[in-house]
Model the fold of this input.
Amino acid sequence: MRPRTVPLPWAAGYGLARTLLALGTLGTLLFSDAATLFREVATVGRYPMCQGVNSGGAFCLVSEDHYDAMRWACCLVLVIAASGWRPRFTAVPHAYVAFSVFTGIAIPDGGDQITWILTLLIVFVALGDPRRWHWQPAPSPEDRPSRHRTRWALLGAGALVVARIQMSVVYFQSCVAKLPHAEWADGSALYYWINNYDFGAPYWLRPTLGFVVDHPVGVAAMTWGPLVLELALAAALLMPQKVRWALLPAGVLFHLCIAVVMGLWSFALAMCAGLLLLLTPFGHDPDFARMLRRTTRQSAIPQPPKEDASAEARVRIG
Done:
């Protein structure tokens, strides 16, 4: 009988997702002061609302006069997490900060929510990560006893499976929730979004986008295109890996366009992190050093391609 194996989940690919999640929350805290983040919301109350589980958030542990100090302390945690240092020790503080931001600030969005969910799941991956930096290649299966490595690998792989399912559900719900609305069904929704004074395109971009959405074919393509892409991303788990690789740049470009047009940069970073978890194989280990050398053209000698860690860094489970 052929022995069953599981790929080691600890590689630079999941590390990049951790960094993007940390940078998204960092941008929210870094470029917004306490008066903006914590304030009165009509019909709801004043944030942070320290009730029930939410009372465990970082901003409920200090008085209002110390919100800014706590905000900077959270920024420090996020900088360390984004750097990739010791994921085993930084994953839990990172998840706690993500929870504190989502439950504590007055204007959370979907990006803050998905960041909290993904950072919590990544904790179960990072706790077994033996590396000093999450940018390092996947460890060799011989570095630790097989039984110890197998338990952590199974826990991490299971958490990543849940993260993939979560992202698939997010895209499916995002697509089908739009369909009952007449503006999405008839292809005119983006016309109203682009021209919205609160959430629409910035003034420097509005003439170009306005030229597109003023034509029936252009506005229909901009409205229905995201629906098709979201449905494809929702079904990505059922597709072969080569199709997932093709969907990855399309999904990243989609969220970057949303960030440029609507200013939702933290949301874009969170969703790009989710795309990495959804579309890349377990243990994917991109060679960032080789990519940098190719980009800067510092090396004239062609380098042999690095084998994907997902094909080699595996442990036997039976």
Q: What stands out?
A: The CA atoms of residues 41 and 291 lie 47 Å apart. Strands lie at 5-7, 40-41, 45-46, 314-316. The chain is about 60% helix and 5% strand.
